[in-house]
Specification:
Length: about 220
C-alpha cells in the first residue's frame, strides 16, 4: 500500500509541476509552444479555458491512441484531466506572473521548460503510463515506420498550423520552445540521473487482470 501511495504522490507531483512549467512558458508572453498554440486557438474559438481545451484534446487523443493499439495507464487518464485543471487553477488565480520585457520573459520560459523536464521525471517515473500526446507519437511511429523525430515534428507542425488559424499566439518563444524543449528535458534527466528506459509501466489492463484473478480466487470452492 505504501508503494502504491508513493507512486500516486509521485504522479500528481509531476502533473502539478508540469502545469506550472506550461503556465510559465505561456506567461513568458513570447509565443506559445505548438500544442499550447492549438489549445489557445480552441479556447478562443469555442469560448473555454485553455485548461479545458487541454482536457478535451487529451480525451480525443486517448480515444485515438486506443484505436491505434496503445495501452493506457492511470497516469494517462490523470495526465489528460489534471494538467488542464491545474493550469486553470494557476492561470485563473494569477498565481504565476506575466512578464512584458524580453530578458525576464526569456528566463522564465527557459525555467518553465526545465521544470517540465523535472515534472517528466516525476510523472514518467511513477510508471503509470505516458501522456496522451506521447502515446499518439509512439502509436504513429509504430504504424508508419518513420522516426520518432519525424513523427513528433509532423504532429507539432500540424497542431501549430491549426492553432495559428484558430487564433493562437505565435512568437519567438514558439521557435525557442520547439528548438529547446528537448534539450531542457534531456538536461533535467541527466542532472537527476533518470533513465526513462528503466521505467516499468503498469497499465489499466494489468489491474483489470489482477482484479479478475482476485475475484476468481474468492469464488473458488474450498475442499474439506
Amino acid at each position: 500500500m505504501k508503494a502504491v501511495l508513493f507512486r500516486i504522490l509521485r504522479l500528481f507531483t509531476g502533473l502539478f509541476l508540469y502545469a506550472i512549467g506550461i503556465v510559465m512558458t505561456i506567461n513568458a508572453n513570447l509565443g506559445l509552444a505548438p500544442w499550447d498554440v492549438f489549445h489557445q486557438g480552441l479556447s478562443n474559438t469555442i469560448g473555454i479555458t485553455m485548461g479545458q481545451a487541454s482536457i478535451g484534446v487529451g480525451l480525443l487523443l486517448i480515444i485515438i491512441d486506443s484505436f491505434l493499439g496503445e495501452r493506457l495507464g492511470w497516469g494517462t487518464i490523470s495526465n489528460m484531466i489534471f494538467i488542464g485543471l491545474f493550469m486553470d487553477v494557476l492561470m485563473l488565480n494569477h498565481l504565476i506572473p506575466i512578464f512584458q520585457h524580453m530578458l525576464p520573459s526569456l528566463l522564465m520560459m527557459l525555467l518553465g521548460m526545465f521544470i517540465i523536464g523535472i515534472a517528466s521525471i516525476f510523472y514518467i517515473g511513477a510508471g503509470l503510463g505516458s501522456g496522451p500526446r506521447d502515446g499518439l507519437m509512439v502509436a504513429l511511429t509504430k504504424r508508419t515506420g518513420k522516426s520518432v523525430r519525424f513523427i513528433r515534428n509532423a504532429i507539432e507542425i500540424c497542431v501549430l498550423a491549426i492553432g495559428y488559424v484558430l487564433g493562437g499566439f505565435i512568437g519567438i518563444g514558439t521557435l525557442i520552445t520547439a528548438l529547446a524543449i528537448g534539450y531542457m528535458v534531456q538536461f533535467a534527466f541527466k542532472l537527476f540521473k533518470f533513465d526513462v528506459g528503466q521505467v516499468q509501466h503498469r497499465f489499466i489492463d494489468d489491474d483489470i487482470r489482477w482484479l479478475g484473478g482476485l475475484l476468481k480466487k474468492e469464488k473458488r470452492p474450498t475442499v474439506d
